Amino acid sequence: MNPTDQFLEVAIQEAQQGLLEGGIPIGSVIVHRDTIIGRGHNRRIQKLSAILHGEMDALENAGRQPASVYRVCTLFTTLSPCAMCSGAILLYGIPRVIVGENRTFMGEEELLRSRGVSVEVLENRECIRLMEEFIQHNRALWNEDIGM
Fold first, then answer.
1. Which of 24, 62, 124, 147 has the highest Cβ tally under 10 A?
2. Residue range 118-124: average pLDDT?
3. What is the C-alpha separation between 30 and 88, in angstroms, rounded?
């Protein structure tokens, strides 16, 4: 298994954990020089939070890091990052984002690219399946999560 697949698999495990907890199946990991420094999943439901998307949870779990660390990290996420999460990516200067899928939700990929972030979309089947099934059975909750 190549490193990209390996790290995306950890993000998928995070998404599955979120679903098991009764939340939204979106997971993320932050990788610094081939080592995961933060991992998380969408915990808005579990924590009654307005902001704990998968990427935000991974950043929180990475803890306070110097800018020099973030500027060489890659963020892996199972779903295209929303405006809030993209803002955090830009704020901390994360230069590379690997997206599991963007079919069920197209986030701010063009904004990220316009600011010099490398964005790669894998269209991973498991990421797509997780979100399609969740959205089909939880439309109102999904709409709340993306601000609709």
1. 24
2. 98
3. 12
Q: CA-CA distances (angstroms) from residue 99 to 7, 51, 53, 91? A: 11, 19, 14, 18
Q: Among 14, 55, 101, 108, which one carries the catalytic annotation?
A: 55
pTM metric for this prediction: 0.96
Question: Cα–Cα distance between 130 and 23 in angstroms, integer?
Answer: 12
CB 23 within 8 A of CB 43: yes
Alpha-carbon span 51 to 44, nearest angstrom: 7
Report whether 112 contacts 93 (CB < 8 A): no
**Has residue 148 got a pLDDT over 70?**
no
Task: Report residue 74 as tokens.
Answer: 């890659």
Is residue 55 annotated as part of the catalytic site, yes or no? yes
- Which of 111, 133, 73, 28 lies closest to 142, judged by CA? 133
pLDDT for 63-90, tens place per residue?
999 999 999 999 999 999 999 999 999 9
* φ/ψ (deg, to 5) at 26: -130, 125
CB 120 within 8 A of CB 77: no
Q: Which of 90, 146, 98 is nearest to 118 (CA)?
A: 98
